[in-house]
Design a protein that fits this description.
The structure is a homodimer of 351-residue chains. With 351 residues, the first copy, chain A, is an alpha/beta fold. Chain A is built from 13 helices and 12 strands. A 6-stranded parallel beta sheet of chain A has the order 2-1-3-4-5-11, sandwiched between helices. A 6-stranded mixed beta sheet of chain A has the order 7-6-8-9-10-12, with helices on both faces. The radius of gyration of chain A is 26 Å and the shape is elongated. The structure holds a DNA duplex (30 and 30 nucleotides).
Chain lengths: 351, 351
Amino acid sequence: MDPVRRTPARRPTMKDIAQRAGVSESAVSFALNDRPGVSPATRDRVRRVAEQLGWRPSTAARALSGEGAATVGLVLARPAHTLGVESFFLQLVSGIQEVLARRHLGLLFQVVEDLGEECAIYRRWWAERRVDGLLVVDPRLDDPRPALLDELGLPAVVIGALAPGTPAHSGISTVWADDAGAMASIVDHLYGLGHRRILHIAGLPHLAHTQRRIRSLHAEAARRGLPDVHSISTDYSDTEGAEATRRALARPRPPTAIVYDNDVLAMAGLAVANERGLAVPGDLSLVAWDDSVLCRSAHPALTALVRDTSSFGRHAAEQLLSLLDGNPAREIQDDLPRLMARASTAPPPGS
Amino acid sequence: MDPVRRTPARRPTMKDIAQRAGVSESAVSFALNDRPGVSPATRDRVRRVAEQLGWRPSTAARALSGEGAATVGLVLARPAHTLGVESFFLQLVSGIQEVLARRHLGLLFQVVEDLGEECAIYRRWWAERRVDGLLVVDPRLDDPRPALLDELGLPAVVIGALAPGTPAHSGISTVWADDAGAMASIVDHLYGLGHRRILHIAGLPHLAHTQRRIRSLHAEAARRGLPDVHSISTDYSDTEGAEATRRALARPRPPTAIVYDNDVLAMAGLAVANERGLAVPGDLSLVAWDDSVLCRSAHPALTALVRDTSSFGRHAAEQLLSLLDGNPAREIQDDLPRLMARASTAPPPGS
DNA sequence: CCACAAAACTAATGCGCTTTAGTAGTCATT
DNA sequence: AATGACTACTAAAGCGCATTAGTTTTGTGG
């Protein structure tokens, strides 16, 4: 009978390498970390042995001797029912990973219900020495997280702009998309088609980018003298998107164009338009913020604000690496999203 | 001038607790880990001090002294362009987290391009002692991962069934959905409506559950004597979904009902039907595997196979915890998904 | 009041790595 | 040939925790 190998492959340590290579453990450490103190010949030998043994440094041991945990954290605070589809996050994460992988950094990921839990996780991770840095998403008005992370001394990159007036923190970079400019380009498009009554069905009101979009919309409306331009906040869910759309269309002078803050809301809006027998774009024009399969597969295909989310994630991760390398915090702006005109926008009825 | 506190809050260690409580470090360890060797009074005192100091055990130190990394891993091997929408994963992860959080286990998450990279990550994580266990998704025909993980001695739970005939591995549990039964319920529904020519636009052909669905479909067709029932594989993308639909509808005797393996494919199929002027469900019935906002917001709303993905994730995580606790591997079956009939299915034309 | 066990607590070791201090060996300089 | 300056290497300590072995205190029965 085959003797079953019960011991499941021991992990090699530096001691193993040292023995095989016939040198001390310190020499191994120097050799593998490009530190001076070993001859080129020894260095090569040690490296070969390490390679051959399939050695990898124990992150625990590394972390314990002050090298950091080789991990960055990302917490997503969204009530469970809200994280339905959202192409955004998986793409963002995929971009982030691409950059982190180059340095063999792990991504510790957690989904929680609310901001309070998120802060608790940060404290926990800090105390447990689990992460070297953080990626913070969904910045809010009056956001407690930058101050907290600064206090804990955890480098972080805020993805999406902080609200204006938020004090700068030394270890915190920001990578943001120009929501104001993007909103301006949408209004441009709709105004150019002849729309004068525009509704903006926004996302969560306490998010900083929601406010930026709302402000920009109103500024653009004011600039063009449009009185009938409003924003309504939702929780990003299809339910609230549909509800808000229904109420808006029931008004005496309904909007001729609606801008939705994400693809899910837009799809829900489209469904409501269909349900009420409104032709899109004949009777009503729709625009979605963020493109996705939903927008492309919808009938009619939705005009959408296309941005390269995965590249956004890459940039954020790059900034975090830069912080971890000891570079000063920066504030960088991502590419301006591009409005992709499709079949859901046209001149308003009677024009 | 305010003296700036440059030191960003030192993390308390057991030594700090020991000093404040006036006991040795060992006593602290005993007290905090419910080990015998300290009086109830001391235990309480130590705990209070720990609480007050906001102490949390350093995972690195814990891991180094043999306690495991307090982390489980999850690798998602999907080509970047494929992970478009997919409500599935975020929900799965959210369910997983719910269970892991109770034990304060972290989730190390990674997105890679292919299976080879995924295996490399497993080896790396193992060698780096980063994870205590793994959640494996997208089981395949002839899957190398169970054997690898068994060799490495990493407990794992495979989410979704392995292909039949895969040898059992001692440290590997399986949590699977009854794809065959689900497919049977879909065929039941369609056959009951009068459909005889059914097309199945499937996902990636090398995934085990894809094969299960295909087999079940053919078995059900054979049982009812339906000759014109086929499956076509895709990569789950809207592009291939649309393409496959187009080709199928161009055939001399096109199907009267199409079953799609996910919501994205189904939406793409719906768009193609619209583009060709086919009425859904009048001319063509559509069914989506997996429900989501897409299905609910589509026009007409799509009949879909609803399953509680987040509960699926919870069950998988629970199995992993059980494995980590030293319990033997198990194979458990999740609830049978439920077919939610909506507006996209009806009797075929001319019936 | 003593012997002796059990309870309460401390000291010491190890996990795998980095790093500082320390020890040979090599080479050039005067 | 002796001094110093490097180079190549080894020994040892420490990171924060768990754990084992060892020590002191307390409690019990005789």
